[in-house]
Design brief:
Blueprint (H helix, E strand, L loop, with lengths): L7 H7 L5 H13 L3 H20 L15 H6 L8 H18 L15 H13 L3 H21 L4 H4 L5 H15 L4 H14 L16 H20 L8 H14 L16 H16 L1
Length: about 290
Amino acid sequence: MIMAFHSVESLLRASGHQPLWEAVLEDDLHDRGTGRDDSIRRMTALWIAMLSAVEGYDPGRRSASGLAGGAGALLSDGEDGLCGPCIRQVIATALKTGECNACMGRIVAAPTAGASGVLPAVLLPYRDKFHVPDDRMVQALYVAAGFGQVIASRASISGAEGGCQAEIGSASAMAAAALVHLHGGTPAQMAHACAMALKALLGLVCDPVAGLVEIPCIKRNVTGAMNAIACAEMALAGVTSAIPCDEVIDAMRAVGEALPVSLRETGQGGLAATPTGRKMAAELGDKHKLL
C-alpha cells in the first residue's frame, strides 16, 4: 500500500471536503486495507496506552542505569510554582512518560520512544482542563499522525538520521497541530502550528549521554511540549509561518543531513562529550563489566 500524504499541501487539499482527521483515517483504511471500526479501535488503544503510562507512574522506580526516575513526581506535588497547575501537569506528564520509557515501561512511540512524552504531555492536560471526551482525543491523534506521516515521508523521525529535531521536533510539530484541532482551529492553522513548532527546534542535536535515551532526552520532551503549546496558541490567534510547512520539513531534512555523525545519536558529541557525560558513560561501562 502507498501512503497518500507526502506533503502537508496534499493533506490540506484532502481536508477540503471533510475534517482533516477524517482524511487521515481514510488514508489509514486504504493503506492497511482495514475497516473504519478497526482503525478507530487501534487508535483508541494508543490513547489508552498513553494514559496508562502516566496513570501507572511509579515515583520510586529507576532505570537500569540509575540516571532516570522520580523527576515526574516532583512536579506533581507541592506548590503551583511559577507556571500554575495546568503547565505543571504538562511538564510532569512529559517527564513521567519519558521516565516510563527509560524504565522499560509501556509507552507509545509518537513518533519515537525518545519523544514519547510530548504528545501525552499536551493532550492529557488539555483533556482534563476542557473536559474533552475520549473520541475527540482520538481524533487529535489522527491529526498528529497525518502530520507525522508527512514529516517521516519528506524528512525523517529518526535521531540517528536527523538529530533530535527529527524526534522531539517532529513530536512537537505533531502535538501543535493536534492542539489546534482540539481547540477548533482550521487545517491551515494546524499546518502553521506544525511549521512554527518544527522551525523552533530546527538543528536540535541528538547527543544521548552513554548512548541511553535518558539524558538529555527525557527533559527535552518538556521543551517539545511547551513549544507545541506556544505554537498552537500563536496559530489559533492568527499568527502564520512565513515559510510553508512542507518547505520547513524539507529544511529539517537538509539540516539533519548536514549534522556531523557525532550529533546524530552516536553519543559522541554534544552533552555526551562533556566531562560529566564522559564520566557517566565510563562509570556505567565499569558497572556493566562487573555484572
